[in-house]
Design brief:
Elements lengths: L12 H19 L17 H12 L5 H15 L6 H17 L2 H26 L3 H83 L3 H30 L16 H12 L4 E7 L9 H21 L3 E10 L2 E9 L13 H12 L3 E7 L2 E9 L2 H5 L1
Parallel strand pairs: 1-2
Antiparallel strand pairs: 2-3, 3-5, 4-5
């Protein structure tokens, strides 16, 4: 079994430098005979070097082991009072107290200022009772300067560092949330662009696919000519729609021009195009618009209604059985109703494959506006129903 050894953290290089410099300066003061006290219990000159060496060692541990450095340093400070004393020992002790608050645990950082404050008060009262002299107040002030004041300073520095760290974390979280919002906005914009591209181009490409299949499968010059005419018309219309979409994407303002947004007023031309595309499949198209005259709709609602009708007609051209495709538009109060009924059954002749993305797009458009959408077969009829809120608040949302 391998011998697992716990590797203790090495002292910080700056702490080692402080310790060596402190010991060297203290040794210099000792060599010149500069003491802080006299007539102590240990009057040998070398005795003052012991607390000095211990305190210098604790200075090297001030950052890696702050609690140990404070405990041992306190003992060395008390021992220094029984020797001739050294000023550097006192100064290094103040730094050890400061480091214990700044680098110690949160509990230690809270405890040290209170402990040093109580020690300062206790020393002052004790010497007042013992000496009964005002000099005891001076001793209390000195005790506070070498213990309580460094602890309070360390507490202030630590609080500032923690506040700065909290501010940095909040800034990182804000940046992360902003990035998440940006990513969501990009995803939403891509989804919107995908819906627009599908709704605009799928209709034309489906017609091209159906009529090109008919032209290839039927060896009749008249049929082939009609199919090629429809293919050309849809190709030109598809290119125009693509140019319009590219123009909107390049718009620096980010908002489409009012004239570039399809509206329900263009349903007649939309059904005319569907008649041209679906005539080969035996389809007829009827529009019933029961909206009251003079009423305006919010632009998002009108665009959604137009796209739902467009996609429903595209699906009818691709999949509907011969018959009549009926489009009904109605408005009652604050609700706009869109209904498209298509013949449902076996389709003769060529068809076009579907992916189901059109139904998903129609449902998403409706739900984004807070409406209701349903698409299902009812007997021999495929029914598409969309109920959209038509009040002005939708346009301002």
């Amino acid at each position: 079994m391998l011998d697992e050894r716990v590797r203790l953290p090495r002292p910080h290089p700056h702490d080692l430098l402080i310790a060596l410099a402190g010991f060297a300066i203290g040794l210099l003061l000792w060599s010149f005979g500069l003491y802080t006290t006299g007539d102590r219990l240990f009057d040998q000159r070398w005795a003052a070097l012991v607390p000095l060496a211990v305190m210098a060692t604790m200075e090297a541990l001030r950052r890696t082991h702050p609690q140990t450095a404070l405990s041992v340093g306190t003992v060395a400070m008390v021992a220094d009072q029984f020797t001739d004393g050294n000023l550097v020992t006192v100064l290094m002790f103040t730094d050890v107290v400061y480091a214990a608050v700044v680098y110690g645990s949160p509990a230690s950082a809270r405890r040290v200022p209170y402990s040093t404050g109580l020690i300062t008060i206790g020393v002052t009262i004790g010497f007042l009772v013992w000496w009964q002299n005002a000099i005891a107040l001076l001793v209390g002030v000195i005790t506070g300067m070498i213990s309580f004041l460094p602890a309070v300073t360390g507490s202030i520095v630590r609080n500032h560092r923690e506040a700065a760290e909290s501010a940095r974390l909040r800034a990182e979280q804000t940046a992360l949330l902003a990035e998440m919002d940006r990513a969501q906005a990009v995803v939403a914009e891509r989804a919107r662009m995908a819906r627009e591209l599908h709704d605009m181009v799928a209709n034309h490409l489906s017609a091209i696919a159906i009529h090109s299949t008919a032209a290839l499968s039927l060896d009749e010059p008249a049929t082939t000519r009609r199919a090629l005419t429809v293919i050309r018309e849809n190709s030109v219309a598809g290119l125009a729609e693509m140019r319009r979409l590219i123009g909107l994407l390049r718009d620096s303002g980010g908002e489409p021009e009012p004239g570039a947004v399809p509206s329900l007023d263009a349903l007649d031309s939309l059904l005319a195009r569907a008649r041209a595309n679906g005539s080969a499949g035996g389809l007829e198209f009827v529009l019933e618009d029961s909206r009251p005259p003079g009423g305006s709709l919010p632009a998002p609602v009108e665009l959604a209604a137009y796209r739902i009708v467009q996609e429903s007609l595209t699906n009818a051209v691709k999949h509907a059985a011969p018959g009549t495709v009926r489009v009904r538009i109605g408005r009652s109060g604050g609700v706009l109703t869109v209904a498209v009924d298509s013949p449902y059954g076996q389709r003769p002749g060529p068809g076009a494959p579907g992916t189901g993305s059109g139904l998903v797009g129609m449902r998403e458009r409706t739900e984004l506006l807070g409406g209701e959408f349903r698409a299902a077969a009812s007997g021999s009829v495929w029914q598409v129903r969309a109920v959209l809120p038509a009040d002005e608040r939708v346009g301002n949302a």
